[in-house]
Predict the structure of Thioredoxin-like protein.
Amino acid sequence: MFRFHKTLDVLTLFHAPASAASKRILETLRASSTAHKKSFELDVVEAPTVPTPTQLTSILEFIGRNRVGEVVPGARSEGDAVKLLSEMGGGGGEGGMVRPLLVDWNNGRAVVGADEGAVLRLLETLPGGK
C-alpha cells in the first residue's frame, strides 16, 4: 500500500540581517527546526527583498487588514503598502516593512516583529510531525 507523505509546512521569514531582533528570531527558528518533533521548511528572505503584492495580500488577510501599518509603517491600506514597498525597496525604516516578519503560509498565520513568544506558539501549533 502506498502512503502519501504530508508536505512540510512552509514558513517564510522576511529577515533583516543587520537587525539583532531579526537575527534572534532566525536563530530561534533554526534551533526549533532541530529540537521540535514537527518539521517545517524555512524560507529566509533577506532585506531589501519584499513580499510580492500577492504575498502581501495574503499576509494582511492572515493578520487583519486593519493592521497594515504594523507591517508597512505609514501605510493605511493595502494599496498604500504596495506603493510604499515598491518605492522604498522594502529596506527598513521610513516606508519599509517591519522585519522580522514570519509567515506560515499553509496555516494562514503571521507574526509581525520580534515577539519570540508568538513565534514559539506558532511553531508549537504546527500540525503534523516528522
